[in-house]
Specification:
The protein is an all-alpha fold. It is built from 23 helices and no strands. It has 2 domains: 62 residues, no CATH class; 308 residues, ADP-ribosylation/Crystallin J1 (ADP-ribosylglycohydrolase fold, Orthogonal Bundle), CATH 1.10.4080.10. Helix content is 55%, strand content 0%. Pfam families: ADP_ribosyl_GH (PF03747).
Length: 460
Amino acid sequence: MRLTWAQPEDLVGHELRQAAEDGRDAAAIRRAWLAAGGRPAPERAGASDAPAPPELRALAARLLDDLAALPNPSARAEPTAWEAVTASLRPPPGPPEAAPPAVDPGLRTRLEAAWLGRAVGCLLGKPVEKLPLAAVRALARAAGNWPLDDWFTARGVPPDLLAAHPWNRRSAPTSLAENIDGMPEDDDLNYPLLNLLLLQRHGRSFTTADVASLWLDELPAGRTFTAERIAYRNLLLGLEPPATATHHNPFREWIGALIRADVHGWTNPGDPAAAAAQAHRDATLTHTGNGVYAALLVAAATAEAATGRADVHGALRAGLAAVPPGSRLAEAVRFAVAAARAAAPTAAGFEPVVDALHARYGHYHWVHAVPNTALLAAALTHADGDFTGSVCRAVSGGWDTDSNGATAGALAGLLAGSPRALPDRWTAPLGNRLSTTVPGFDGTGFDALAHLTAQEAARS
């Protein structure tokens, strides 16, 4: 067995890449690693093919410590501590303009559309997860589904193209048009379910330690990936937050915290600042800097949308207002929104936007929060609130396709306001049920999840 996202000899390559992104001078460490026989990190896989010899693995552990000790010139513009994050905002967050009603009769309906939208977007992106952008486009075009407007399918796709760009091995049996039957298990749904469980047990005043305890009690280690797997390992080593997010964790600015953020917005309708604070306590178990900011943006945007009074552009403005303006993620989102607004307002008009994003941010790993959050913002902006346009643009842009589709679908579903507003071709194959290993939720319907989430939103 070759455990992914955890081998020291792989973590060094990822940390060297992270150092290049945040401005640390790691040239001497890179030379020492390569001279000893070390390799760059795998581009798409979670682990290299063969384990390193003991002496190289020991060197990897030492170099990870050396990399962590390097001065970080981006630290001032990209803080992680909540007090420093809020101090950087323009203006600092305050209370909501008007307190939301204690019981909003329309919230449960909006939440059902959001849960459904999250599942639809995730499922749409699952078969092409990990594929490069050119492969995503080629597979859709071969099926007559470009610009993307429906589920991916193998029908009509030439065998040589499928051989060159195979579907995601784990997802293809349950996520193509010809085989969808309910929502299969995915971490993009597992984490919102865990956060619903978190709120049921601890309320909205939960701590980061409560998140950690819940994971140890209810989340199998094998269901974690990238930053979450490293943080889980760090907990088992006896480390406590926030060290769980930083110790030998080169994935700390990747997308994992973003995919956990929806519930924090859903349960704070009309209060983006409270949603962002909640998301911060969750995110800092596993992430720092831009990885945290992605979660803050999604939580705040979702809280704004949850009122039923905002449009997608107002929601994104509320999300961006929760992010330090000098950060790389804020710059990327501003660029993405501007590019989407300037593009032709057709499905085909989004393709040049994607090309521009890949040209500008393609040096990041395909799971990093910066490019994926930028793509998410561009897709939502360009689709102008349309559900199908939102999920299809998010997935058609490549990178982390299922996570981007999930978050786009959740926000677009919330803005749609009702499950009836979502096209039947998307919702009917889900059969109002999802599969999960999160205790108590396997086989649950999206209507039931909306009811439980609305209860937490109403709880003081």
